[in-house]
Amino acid sequence: MKNIAILGFGVVGCGVAEVIEMNKERIASRLGEELRVKKILDIREFPDSPFAALVTNKKEEVFDDPEITVVVETIGGARIAYEYTKMALSSGKTVVTSNKELVSTHGVELMQLAHANKCNYIFEAAVGGGIPIIRPMHRCLAGNKIERIAGIVNGTTNYILTQMAENGSDFDSALKEAQSMGYAEQNPSADVDGIDAQRKIAILSTIALDGAYVDPTKLFTVGITAVTTKDMEYAKEMNASIKLLAIFENGEDGAFAYVAPHLVSKSHPLACANDVFNAIMVTGNAVGDVMFYGQGAGKLATASAVVGDVMDAIEHQSRNAHVAPWYESEKPVLVPIEEHKVSVLLRLPDSVSDEQIEEAFPEISSQPCVYEAEGEKAVILGKDGDLNEAKLAIGLQSFDDVLSVIRIF
Fold first, then answer.
1. Which distant-in-sequence residues (6+ apart) come within 8 Å of 162 by Cβ?
2. Hey, where are the domains in the chain?
3. Any idea which of 20-24, 125-129, 313-317, 405-409 has the lowest mean pLDDT?
4. Which CATH architecture has domain 2-130+300-316?
5. Pick from 5, 6, 96, 102: most CB atoms within 10 A?
6. CA atoms within 13 A on the CB side of 61
7. In whole angstroms, how large is the CA radius of gyration of the chain?
């Protein structure tokens, strides 16, 4: 029998216990022995839960128990979860988590601590929830240089943008609906400001760079709070969708990583991911494009990935087959975002003349948009690869009123 403990009995923690109970015979057949949740650590009590007898508020019952070899961390955040994760790893217990904030912030330290204590720190569910992405990148695509990752990795923002596009809702109305459906927190800033996606692309970028750590707080990030119904009107006329994309690129000019809303042609597979669904496209220099699609969040979807990690940890014991070790590179791993080439849809008041646009963006390719709303001027800049983020920022300073800037994927 293999014993595990769960730290934090919220939505995901409860889901982990349910998945293990639901599929106990299948799991036992795969592992060759029973997998049992021995303890659940939480300061709360759950008298109505079928797992109530397993709940304790005494951490020593988890960390001092030699029979518990794997700890599932579903507390969330980077404070208590960080302390408990270090305690578990220091005790030689493998930790499995879905906590992208903790992984993206302290991943290097925690993986090194795991290595020093001959255990593992595993986090498949931290990026795509129920979508397999980390293990496929590390194993199945190991023979490739990852040239690009482009993903819709936040279900909340994708739901909001879908409602705006399909129902004509404005941002505030779509957000309220997402909150009423349980898709958005009462404080939704981590989602709508792009912070959640920022953390996830930092994790994927680090893996794509063979463990060279990418700090999420250093990434250029734009959320969706400024996206309007008028932007959606333009997207429709351009046969495109607006999606919050988390992007990593590694080409001749170096590696870039960032998060921003993009116009995505409806002919592109990423445009088909709507509502709370996530989609991640990975491009390898040998395999080409591969797509991962599914529910990026949710109780059982995320729990399924966590349980898969638990089984992986038990099967491989002290060998971490999950990811290459992370490390702090002495040299910058990313090129400054100012150098990144970009193409954008720029919306301005119609009082702005073509000459003013040319003066703001000299020697930059420009073409009229196929559609212009009344009272507006809309142009597409940089289609010839002659615009970068630095030139864009400088040019925008020439206008008193910029209605919208949306990057084109």
1. 274, 275
2. 2-130+300-316, 134-295, 341-408
3. 313-317
4. 3-Layer(aba) Sandwich (3.40)
5. 6
6. 14
7. 23
Q: Would you state the CATH architecture of domain 134-295?
A: 2-Layer Sandwich (3.30)
The whole-angstrom separation of Cα 27 and Cα 335 is: 44
Instruction: Please tell me the predicted confidence (pLDDT) of residue 320.
Output: 56
CA nearest 247: which of 103, 386, 408? 408
| 243 a catalytic residue | no
What CATH fold (topology level) applies to the domain 341-408? Alpha-Beta Plaits (3.30.70)
* pLDDT digit string, tens, across residues 322-377: 678 899 999 999 999 999 999 999 999 999 999 999 999 999 999 999 999 999 99
Strand boundaries in 305-403, DSSP class E: 344-349, 366-368, 376-381
What is the crossing angle of helices 100-116 and 80-90, to 10°?
20
Place of tokens 């995320």: 302
Locate all alpha helices (DSSP H) within 220-348, ordered by sequence: 229-237, 299-316
How many Cβ atoms from other residues are within 10 Å of residue 181's Cβ?
13
* Separation of alpha carbons 2 and 263, rounded Å: 49
Return mean pLDDT, the chain. Answer: 95
Residue of 2, 200, 299, 377 marked active site: 200
CB 132, CB 292: distance < 8 Å:
yes
Burial zone of 151 (CB within 10 Å; 0-12 exposed, 13-18 middle, 19+ buried): buried
What distance in Å separates the CA atoms of residue 400 and residue 409, rounded to the nearest whole number? 27
The sign of the torsion formed by the CA atoms of 263, 266, 268, 270 equals positive
One-letter identity of residue 73: E
* pTM for this predicted structure: 0.94
Say how many residues make up the chain.
409
Distance between CA atoms of residues 383 and 173, nearest Å: 34
Q: 286-306 in b/e burial notation, b at 16+ Cβ within 10 A?
A: eeeeeebbbbbbbbbbbbbbb
Instruction: For residue 393, give the 3-state DSSP assignment.
Output: helix
β-bridge mates for residue 280, sequence order: 151, 292
